[in-house]
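Render Anaphase promoting complex 6 in 3D.
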Amino acid sequence: MYLDKDSEDREINISSAICFLKGKAYEALENRSQARQWYTAAIKADPLCYEALECLIESHMLTCDEEKSLLSSLQFAQEDGWLSSFYSCLIKKYDKASVVEAKFNELEKEDISIKPSNQSLVCTLKNNTDLLACKAEYYHQCGEYQKCFELTSILLEKDPFHLKSNRVHIAAAMELGHSNELYLMACNLVKDYPQKAISWFAVGCYYYCIKKYDHARRYFSKATSLDGTFAPAWIGYGNAYASKEEADQAMSGYRTAARLFPGCHLPTLYIGMEYMRTHSFKLADQFFMQAKAICPSDPLVYNELGVVAYHMKEYKKAVLWFEKTLAHIPSPLSEMWESTVVNLAHALRKLKRYNEAITYYEKALALTRSLSTYAGLAYTYHLQGNYTDAITYYHKALWINPDDQFCTEMLTLALVDESRQGIESERYI
């Protein structure tokens, strides 16, 4: 599919079309390195060959930096300048939030002139479904799942058959635990598109959401058999095994995904997570660093690097990684990143930087009130010798879970220490 400018003034670029067809042929032969070269040649020969760029992006054939480099090399005609902004919204969106939002806002205000049948028309991209689907994808990427879900719900009311919106909607619904929505979507997609991978991926997501991992794995596998280039199904396949702690099969799924999608850092990231789960921290660190090389702007990668450093007792390094994580997260912080703030506080406590640790524990409490945060804050006050505040927060932690052994034991010690401190102070009086 070419983006038509003016059929009378422009003919199809034959060179670009041939390159694109060669790319399709090599992809059908599963020679993805050659397919990537020919798709790249097609879009360079003619920037209006949108389908070549779509194949590169959807199949994760390029890394984040390679996508940016490709876009910067494209030569657009003056009247096609808006396409540069549109393409920049299609690629991986790991720039700062303000930069990405500015791109969307600028493009939504853009007026485009088209000339069907010699009649000049001006249209806007503000309500363009493809652009709004990209925006929803960005919200999902940032962890703003509710905003993503609301936007994709509106999009699917306008166009129920927009498959990219369907894919992002499924992902957001799964993150939010909307199993009923996943069930309805899966039924509709299987009825309308029984031969498409996304339909059976939706079924797999429904079963994954209700924790029936064997069923989920079966349907993720069916999705990959229908379309071996559908990256979400491969990730889901590995996750279904990982959820049952079947590490070897999970690794197999992730490694296949890493081989098929060199531009996607998630398979490598999940391999690292599996190694971390089995306490192979050095191997986990290596894979997290590989994921960072593929996508140097994903905050989740930095968070996992911090967790590994913490487990390896490299607390200074852990603090640096957690601080980098927070630097890459769009503000204000969402509840999704509460664990990162708590992890940073834990690492600071290990370095005996108690006041800084307390500050981050309090920031975490502003996001959500969890047992680990109250326990960490209480323990930090305890280490400082502030037994009164320590006792207060141990009680708050035990209010959430009265059976927590650590808080129960530490509360007893704090009460003993406080009474001992009181006796000593009376002795000096």
